[in-house]
Design goal:
Strand order of the largest sheet: 1-2
Strand content: under 5%
Helix content: over 70%
Order of helices and strands: HEEHHHHHHHHHHHH
CATH topology: MetI-like fold
Radius of gyration: 23 Å
Structural class: mainly alpha
Shape: globular
Distance between the termini: 38 Å
Number of strands: 2
Length: 291
């Protein structure tokens, strides 16, 4: 019993520094945001208690609901693009082939490049006058297909979504590749003996064995979609006419541009609630499917 208590104490002392850091950088800021969300404050003068007025004002704002819709677009396109593309790349690079290390590095490179550089690269690709995309369309005689990709509300969110997928799919490639390499060789050998090869083995054996890792990737993709900010802020600033504005940019404009820190804090709490609701629903669906 004495040894067990000593082990528990050692575990607690080992975890305490990390717990302290987590409280300082996560829990305490959330508590402060919740407190400020109940206040009317410009960041300089005195605060006045307004209760839930900030939340009511947010829910009445059409621009906020437009930002919610744009966040959902980012979330859906991220799930539809990053997860399948990352899985396909991982399956291809899991094979024994020459230069696989080089291709893994190339695939992961967009993840380590700063969002500023990614935004500038795709801004040049989409540029109306000298952008690569319009120039390629012009070379093939598709002049009518040329667009103002970031300035036209019909194409702006799609254009940003493509850049967002390109930036992050390498991360899921590495995650899935690590899971694939942890599958025992005996499993693949047994599958080959049973006649399961190629696509059949991938769909019926490989993917089910890394289903847990895929679900982790899905949860991370959803949570990451609610935190996207710098890519869109640099590429479009939320324009044209708020058409690419997501909730984080809406929060930034409210708090730092309009000096409504209480209002902006309320938006941050709503972002947290929305992400928790979506992830909770996903986890519940996953548990029901496993049952």
């Amino acid at each position: 019993m004495h040894t067990l208590k000593g082990t528990k104490l050692a575990i607690f002392l080992g975890l305490f520094p990390a717990l302290l850091i987590y409280l300082g950088i996560a829990i305490v800021p959330i508590g402060l945001s919740l407190y400020y969300s109940l206040m009317d404050w410009n960041g300089i003068g005195s605060m006045s208690f307004v209760g839930l007025d900030n939340y009511l004002d947010i829910l009445k704002d059409d621009i906020f609901w437009l930002s919610v819709k744009n966040n959902l677009i980012i979330m859906v396109t991220g799930l539809a693009g990053q997860i399948p593309l990352g899985l396909v790349l991982a399956l291809l690079l899991n094979r024994k082939m020459k230069g696989s290390g080089f291709f893994r590095t190339i695939g992961f490179m967009p993840v380590v490049i700063s969002s500023v550089m990614v935004s500038m690269i795709w801004g040049m690709v989409y540029n109306t006058e000298y952008g690569m995309l319009n120039n390629v369309l012009g070379l093939f005689g598709a002049e009518s297909w040329k667009q103002n990709w970031l300035g036209d509300s019909q194409w702006s969110m799609l254009s940003i979504s493509i850049a967002y997928i390109w930036q992050n799919c390498g991360l899921y490639m590495v995650i899935f590749l690590a899971a694939l390499q942890n599958i025992p060789d005996e499993v693949n050998e047994a599958a080959a003996l049973d006649g399961a090869t190629g696509l059949k083995r991938t769909l019926r054996i490989t993917i089910p064995m890394i289903r847990g890792t895929i679900m982790v990737g899905v949860v991370y993709s959803i949570s990451n979609s609610f935190r996207v900010f710098d890519l869109i802020q640099i590429m479009t600033g939320g324009g044209p006419a708020h058409q690419t504005e997501v909730m984080t940019i809406y929060m930034y404009n409210s708090a730092f541009m309009n000096m409504r820190y209480g209002y902006g804090s309320a938006v941050s709490i709503l972002i947290l609630l929305f992400s928790l609701i979506v992830i909770s629903l996903l986890n519940r669906l996953g548990r029901e499917k496993n049952a």
